[in-house]
């Protein structure tokens, strides 16, 4: 973008900020166009951009025009809002500035759907503790595409949407190729004065909604996630893969092919983007973290780069992966496969005997991995239980593995000492058959090998961020802000309710307080509850061009450097650091070149990560529900993990959670304490977070990813 173009945009944006602020001050009086342009001190030559700014403000609903005058919406009792949830007869909108919810009766929604940006007016009434309002006009109500289940019998065809509302929509147009009960994506084709007037048409059918695989396909499709790549992207990838590595490309690279370098990943991993080397000397360790040199292949402004930025991250669910880069790169020329020469970006770090980072050096290198290590096999070696064939496989690097464990233990100790919380999350491993049907769900086990690699990656990531901050170059940092004060209060109440000492928890306090809380709860039955509540109290980690530090790791400097095959921010900073280490550009040129792009990369990567996590979670829920479909009627011991006004959730040892609905509890009047307990007012019977109970799986909804439990009736003679 040229400087004049940038100046025009900045000028218009200045007016877009100033106009609503001025009108807010003017209140009910409002302002004429002439008064407004005068107050903004817009010059004659700026008139065009002022008009564009006014139009933009009107279209986004930040200002109103009435009878030749302009007003702030609030002065007329109007507010910008987004429809958040819908039920059959009512819905909820969130006011954008106030960040609070407003109750809206179905008759006053005017057919608004989840995600619609609307102008609402508050009434004098309240509903519970919420203000009540109505939709006045639509600000953004464009095309709506959604998933749902098609019904062709009993008065069909119609569709029951998954997310946009709790009501059925009449289908119009062809339903050829759609079967009753199919999971589909559909599009709104007609709006009206109410939801009864809405019409939709099927865009694509994926098969029966009782199959998790079909539901996942629909979820991916709706979110624009596909394993297919545009033809130009594939052509670029295939060319790079077929070309291989030329001798001239090895010039000016550090030759590390003689080093005992190897990868350690899951057994099924094919995108091997990191490898390790380690040596111990009298007074120090020298740790090498060797990362696939993806930025050498994925150059700026290529189709490959644009597609990688759009995707932002690889997506993993069940036993599948939707890669950020074509497999020709991710599993091929960029993957650090054993016994194959590969171009790498190496972080060579010197650490003291007590694990302090003394020095670091980033180098373009060429490596040749000695072995494709597998976590389970390395864990066996560390435990001394490895079979002869495993020892033979690792013979070239066997001497390094105990040393890796030694350094890893030191690094982990240091992390605990500086106050980084150890949060154990119950991750699931889904086992599927050849027909993509779920056959088992088990907790994902983390062994010593996984922890070793994690510590080494953390060290390399810290070194990369430290270098960038030292040089003051544009960079994409991984940041984690202090926890929210209100959420910490909830955590404090939870600890008190569980009988744990409530420490002085402050939002701007050290993370060691959180770490100590987790340590005190470890080994106790309610540890998962404490761990979950700690997670809920934390801010979400994100990408930023500003190095504000990482609360959860208790680090001042942190970035993501170690996974450029599957994360775009890593690829971004590889590109920047490549310019630094090769000295192709001066520091001032680097600052000019990347100053705008790092912000774009950080924002896009954060959004992609959030979207990917939701997709992965939704897909996993569908598969878990499918698994429990084969266990309806069976009884399980579980723990109450959370309580709500409509029931409570019970977690099983296999990581599956289900809901015990309040209507399925013994008859009575139940009161929710707003935190962790549901109490029947007459008998005093309570259902409390952390309580171990016996439940029966009463039903599942694969499409929604829901599992329902009911309480197991006590046998005659047992105490209730």
Quick tags:
about 725 residues; alpha+beta; Arc Repressor Mutant, subunit A; OB fold (Dihydrolipoamide Acetyltransferase, E2P); 6 domains; five-stranded mixed barrel; five-stranded mixed β-barrel; about 30% helix; globular
Q: Can you give the mean pLDDT?
A: 91
The helix content is 25-40%
Number of domains: 6
Structural class comes to: alpha+beta
Widest beta sheet: strand line-up:
3-4-5-7-6
C-alpha termini separation: 72 Å
Number of helices: 18
Count of extended strands: 33
Q: How much strand content do the residues show?
A: 25-35%
Low-confidence stretches: 715-720
Description:
- The protein is of the alpha+beta class and 720 residues long.
- The chain folds into six domains: 3-74, Arc Repressor Mutant, subunit A (Orthogonal Bundle); 77-140, Beta Barrel (OB fold (Dihydrolipoamide Acetyltransferase, E2P)); 145-209, OB fold (Dihydrolipoamide Acetyltransferase, E2P), CATH 2.40.50; 231-479 and 547-615, no CATH class; 485-538, no CATH class; 630-711, Beta Barrel (OB fold (Dihydrolipoamide Acetyltransferase, E2P)).
- It is 32% helix and 28% strand.
- Strands 3-4-5-7-6 form a five-stranded mixed barrel. A five-stranded mixed barrel has the order 8-9-10-12-11. A five-stranded mixed beta sheet has the order 13-20-19-16-15, covered by helices on one side.
- The protein is globular and about 80 Å long.
- The N and C termini lie far apart (72 Å).
- Mean pLDDT is 91; it is low at 715-720.
């Amino acid at each position: 973008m040229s400087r004049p173009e940038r100046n025009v945009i900045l000028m218009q944006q200045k007016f877009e900020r100033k106009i609503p602020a001025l009108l807010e001050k003017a209140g009910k009086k409002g302002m004429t166009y002439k008064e407004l342009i005068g107050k903004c001190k817009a010059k004659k030559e700026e008139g065009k951009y002022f008009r564009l700014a006014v139009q933009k403000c009107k279209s986004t609903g930040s200002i109103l025009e009435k009878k030749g005058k302009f007003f702030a919406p609030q002065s007329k009792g109007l507010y910008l809002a987004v429809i958040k949830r819908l039920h059959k007869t009512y819905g909820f909108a969130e006011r954008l500035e106030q960040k609070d919810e407003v109750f809206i009766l179905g008759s006053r929604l005017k057919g608004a759907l989840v995600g619609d940006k609307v102008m609402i007016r508050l009434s004098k009434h309240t509903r519970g503790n919420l203000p009540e309002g109505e939709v006045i006009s639509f600000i953004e109500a464009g095309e709506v595409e959604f998933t749902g289940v098609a019904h062709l019998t009993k008065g069909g065809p119609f569709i029951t949407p998954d997310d946009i509302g709790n009501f059925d929509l009449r289908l119009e147009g062809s339903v050829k190729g759609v079967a009753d009960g199919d999971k589909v994506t559909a599009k709104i084709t007609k709006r009206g004065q109410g939801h009864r007037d809405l019409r939709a048409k099927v865009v694509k059918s994926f098969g029966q909604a009782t199959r998790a695989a079909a539901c996942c396909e629909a979820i991916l499709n709706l979110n624009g996630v596909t394993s297919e790549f545009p033809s130009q992207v594939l052509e670029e990838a295939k060319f790079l893969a077929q070309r291989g590595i030329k001798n001239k490309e090895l010039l000016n690279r550090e030759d590390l092919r003689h080093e005992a370098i190897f990868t350690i990943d899951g057994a099924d991993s094919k995108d091997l983007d990191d490898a390790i080397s380690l040596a111990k000397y009298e007074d120090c360790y020298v740790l090498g973290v060797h990362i696939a040199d993806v930025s050498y292949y994925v150059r700026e402004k290529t189709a490959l780069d644009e597609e990688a930025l759009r995707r932002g991250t690889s997506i993993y669910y069940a036993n599948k992966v939707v890669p950020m880069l074509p497999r020709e790169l991710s599993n091929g020329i960029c993957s650090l496969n054993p016994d194959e020469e590969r171009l790498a970006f190496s972080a060579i770090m010197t650490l003291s005997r007590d694990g302090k980072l003394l020095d670091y050096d980033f180098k373009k290198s060429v490596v040749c991995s000695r072995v494709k290590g597998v976590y389970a096999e390395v864990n066996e070696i560390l435990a001394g239980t490895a079979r002869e064939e495993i020892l033979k496989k690792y013979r070239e690097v066997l001497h390094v593995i105990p040393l890796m464990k030694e350094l890893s233990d030191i690094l982990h100790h240091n992390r605990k000492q500086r106050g980084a919380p150890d949060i154990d999350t119950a991750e699931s491993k889904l086992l599927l058959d050849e027909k993509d049907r779920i056959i088992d769900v088990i907790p994902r086990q983390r062994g010593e090998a996984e922890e070793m690699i994690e510590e080494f990656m953390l060290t390399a990531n810290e070194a990369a961020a430290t270098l960038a901050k030292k040089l003051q170059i544009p960079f994409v940092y991984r940041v984690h802000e202090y926890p929210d004060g209100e959420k910490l209060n909830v955590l404090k109440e939870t600890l008190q309710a569980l009988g744990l000492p409530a420490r002085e928890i402050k939002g701007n306090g050290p993370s060691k307080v959180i770490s100590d809380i987790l340590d005190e709860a470890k080994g106790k039955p309610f540890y998962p509850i404490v761990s979950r509540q700690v997670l809920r109290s934390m801010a979400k980690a994100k990408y930023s061009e500003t190095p504000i530090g990482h609360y959860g790791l208790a680090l001042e400097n942190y970035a993501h450097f170690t996974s450029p095959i599957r994360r775009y921010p890593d690829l971004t900073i590889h590109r920047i650091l490549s310019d630094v280490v090769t000295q192709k550009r001066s520091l001032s040129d680097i600052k000019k070149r990347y100053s705008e792009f790092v912000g774009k990369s950080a924002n896009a990567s954060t959004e992609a990560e959030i979207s990917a996590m939701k997709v992965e979670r939704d897909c996993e829920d569908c598969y878990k529900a499918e698994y429990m479909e084969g266990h309806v009627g069976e009884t399980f011991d579980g723990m109450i993990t959370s309580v709500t006004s409509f029931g409570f959730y019970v977690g099983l040892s296999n990581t599956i959670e289900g809901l015990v609905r309040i209507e399925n509890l013994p008859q009575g009047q139940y009161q929710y304490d707003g935190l962790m307990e549901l109490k029947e007012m007459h008998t005093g019977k309570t259902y409390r977070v952390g309580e171990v109970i016996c439940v029966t799986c009463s039903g599942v909804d694969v499409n929604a990813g829901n599992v329902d439990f009911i309480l197991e009736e006590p046998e005659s003679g047992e105490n209730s």
